[in-house]
Amino acid sequence: MHESFIELKAPLFITGVYRSGTTLISKILDSHADLTIVSDTLHFFRFYLDKYNQDGATYKRIVSDTAHRLYDRYKIHVPENDINEYLGRLSEISFRDIYNTIMIQTFCNGDRNARWGEKSLIQWTNIPLFLHLFPKGQAIHMIRDPRDVLASYREMTNESANKYLDAIFACLHSMDWASKVGSTLNNKQYLILKHEDLVTNPNATIHNICNFLNIQYNENMTDFSSFRDQTGNPWESNSAFGDIPNNITAVSVGRWQQHLKSFEIGLTESIIGNLLETFDYEPSHTKLTRQDLQLMWEHIHSTPLIQQRLRDWLHTGEGVESYPSDPTNPTHWQSD
């Protein structure tokens, strides 16, 4: 037997830059009875896309890898035998079958009628692949003011030295891809969601998301007390500044104006360029002093990674779809 595309509920893929609001929208959607949204655990594309062939021939290795990693890191039990038994009955096994079966068996109690979603950061260029694997699937691409991303990441990251500045280049890549490639995708399958819209006008924005997903809006979706973490316990806001109460609030919008240094603002706006206005973010037109430039130089000079990012950007005009450190390396998991 082989499961047809028609039998699958439309799965959902959520991605964006770190500190862009992907966790919040994931918790909002996971609170809906018709959805099971998994955040920051499986990372199917991150861990398996380039490591294993997509023909399904090595599915037992992928399942075993998943089982060991999710248990070691999160104490999540992956039912290896059930997954392998189901996949073993298929006449041919595709990457889609492996992905879907791991999600269904591990996170949806084996309910093959469940509609699941995965949130995985720094994966926007794999949205077309996701939609190819799941022709009825949908994707939400989160965008946030890169200056607020930078301010939040500087406070939250465990990266060493001044690698937090790498957030500028990740935002550049994300915004550029959304404007050039994302805009060509089917708008019934691909949605650009701005963090600012979600937190300043949650009711209307969530209604629009429900229409996009073809699900019924319910009041739980704006009720913070209904949000759960991966262990099933109440989820608390993961604000980098610790100033957000357990509700949906716009307090984080424009926070960069109080928290970023002038050189950080100037550097961000210089690199992001016209994409700020493309996404309706007003440039500050910050004028840098000699002291600002000196501080900028000190940050860049002490951080080879940022030096390389700048050189690449000057040569290509492009950002990066990556973290400062490799998130598949267990020694870097704290900074993931």
Q: What count of helical segments does DSSP give?
A: 15
Mean pLDDT: 91
Distance between the termini: 39 Å
Radius of gyration: 20 Å
SS strand fraction: 5-15%
Tell me briefly what this model is:
The chain has 336 residues and is of the alpha/beta class. It has helices at 22-30, 44-48, 59-74, 80-88, 95-107, 127-133, 146-156, 166-180, 195-200, 202-213, 256-259, 262-272, 275-278, 290-301, 304-316; strands at 12-16, 36-39, 116-119, 138-143, 190-194.
Note down, in words, how this protein is organized.
By secondary structure, the chain is of the alpha/beta class. The chain has 15 helices and 5 strands. A 5-stranded parallel beta sheet has the order 2-3-1-4-5, with helices on both faces. α8 (166-180) runs parallel beside α12 (262-272). The two termini are 39 Å apart.
Write a concise keyword list for the protein shown above.
336 residues; 15 helices; 44% helix; single chain; 5 strands; alpha/beta; disordered N terminus; five-stranded parallel sheet
Write the layout of secondary structure elements.
Layout: E1 12-16, H1 22-30, E2 36-39, H2 44-48, H3 59-74, H4 80-88, H5 95-107, E3 116-119, H6 127-133, E4 138-143, H7 146-156, H8 166-180, E5 190-194, H9 195-200, H10 202-213, H11 256-259, H12 262-272, H13 275-278, H14 290-301, H15 304-316
Parallel strand pairs: 1-3, 1-4, 2-3, 4-5
Helix pairs in contact: 3-4, 4-5, 7-8, 8-12, 12-14
